[in-house]
Amino acid sequence: MSDPAAAAPGDLYGGLRDGVRVWQQGACGAMATAARFVRHRFRPHTHDTFMFGLIEGGAKEFQRERTTYLAAPHSVSAVNPGDLHTGRRAAGAELRYRALYVPAQTLADAVGAAAAVGFQSGVIEDAGVFRAMVRAHQALVGGETRLARDGLLLAALGLLASRHGGVAAAGAARPARPEIGRARAMIEDRYADALSIASIAREVALSPYHLMRQFRAQVGMPMHAYQLQVRIERARQLLAKGEAPAHVALSVGFADQAHFSKRFKSLVGASPASYQRDVRRNAAGR
User: Fold this and answer.
1) Tens digit of pLDDT for each residue in 5-60?
2) Helices 223-240 and 257-268 meet at what angle, rounded to 10?
3) Angle at 105 between CA 66 and CA 88, to 5 degrees
4) Of 219, 220, 223, 235, which Cα lies nearest the Cα of 268?
5) Which of 33, 41, 37, 55 is nearest to 1 (CA)?
């Protein structure tokens, strides 16, 4: 493995070992991260935001919905809100990339779009866009003024969307059957409970067999995976507020901290303690 201190200016990847560093600077609601992976693989999951990966070392293989992509150095990986996706190192001794998590409204504001913007391809190869996105990321993690961060991010997003974006596909957000919508709501409301398929099926008036099939077809993942994602998202919120990881584990429905830590890293890429240090440090530095 190469020397992490030499990986990027400003010690961006320094000290990372199969992990993620997080910056929440609040530029137009965006979050910035830096990831350095050798063995780690992200299990299938979704985001409420766009996720743009700026590949700086190695190659990233990821599945977005039903298509598998390979993102090489100096390319941008693009995941739309709600896209089920994975991620892993595919080539090179290690995978290093910056990432920007951008709310859909921020991207729409950057181009003055009335309709939702989306990206048909999961990989964008455009040197000008890559440089602009990296500069925006540097501003977010480098502590520049709010005006500088907002301006550089919106300019980069405007360039990205004007060259490679389009109107989001109408089918990207699968129209929910009422029963599946109620099942999702039940999982979201009672994420910490030991729910059974039978109890959810009774609540929504479907057989367990049809509930399982229709939920997976509608949401893109089985119910247990969706519950895990909801639990981890709630855990992120509690960790950001400063609650102890051991307490968070119990609060979101895990029997022990070891299991919680393993599942948290499988979706976030960082341990709960590391994630909390980063977000609390960012909050203190504002």
Assistant:
1) 333 445 788 888 889 999 876 668 899 999 999 999 999 999 999 999 999 999 99
2) 100
3) 35
4) 235
5) 37
